Amino acid sequence: MKKFGTLFILLLVIATSCEEKNKKVYKPASLGAINNLVVVMETHLWESEIGDKVREHFAAPIVGLTWDEAKFTINHMPQRVFSGQTRHRRSVLFVGLDTVNIAHIKTDLYASPQKVAVIKGTTREEIIQNIEDTSDQIIAAIRQMEIKEEQKRFERSLNKEKVLEDKFNITLKMPSLYTVGKQEDNFVWIDMEIPKGNMNIIAYEMPSESFSDESTFVGDIVKMRDSIGKKYIPGPDIPNKTTYMATEKAFAPYIFSAEIGGKKAVEVRGIWEVQNYPMAGPFLTYIINDSENDRKLVLEGFTFAPATNKRDYMFQLEAILKTVQFN
Fold first, then answer.
1. Domain that residue 144 falls in
2. Residue 151 pLDDT greater than 70, yes or no
């Protein structure tokens, strides 16, 4: 009986321990607008070359917009202010002098979801080097979290139209305020009104062998966009002039490799303009290699919002396009 009692107590302790281990520690919901970053560092460092290096990377202009807009809206605060609910901000960068030389990213440290990047050094030179070495990784981690946060916000009220499923056998999550404006045999245009313009999503197919020549790759993308714009996206009516959406000729678009909906893709960022009319804005295009369906699927988001910052509009469009699923 004594042995049985000891065994029972031991099993009870193990079970209780496992139960405690499996319990999730409660974390409050994180706070903050999309693409806002809190930088926690002492003022004398913020006003030095260290602060300059932080701004160089984390407030760098985003490529493909009509004018310079920073990757993140930065709020600086000294460490003594970083307490209470301030610690619940979703994106945090902590920079400081210390007895250690480290740079890492912590997840859900004070709230959820949350990324807290920590960069420390024993000298200013070490801090600057750590910023240089890890800023891209930190920015990528924060942007991935922000994309998911943006998606979570608009998933509360989704567009329920089936046109993309019927035309291209795909699904795309987007806010309910987006509505279908035009649909043809191989073209769908969905848009949403905003205070000073509109946000737009278009989808169409290209033959699977498109863009196979690397030497003409960028030019072929421009030709594709311009031909689609001329056929489906007219500009204002101007006497004796043909107006349509084209790719801005002054600058070549930026090209990046990507993976969308589990498939290899190319990401294209640049500026659209209206042929023969003074209108322009940013676009984001994904050319997805859908070999299972013997096609290249093209998804594009573009914004028309004159005299308005467009970073967050384009970010929402990116978040929408990245929800694509192939049925």
1. 36-154
2. yes
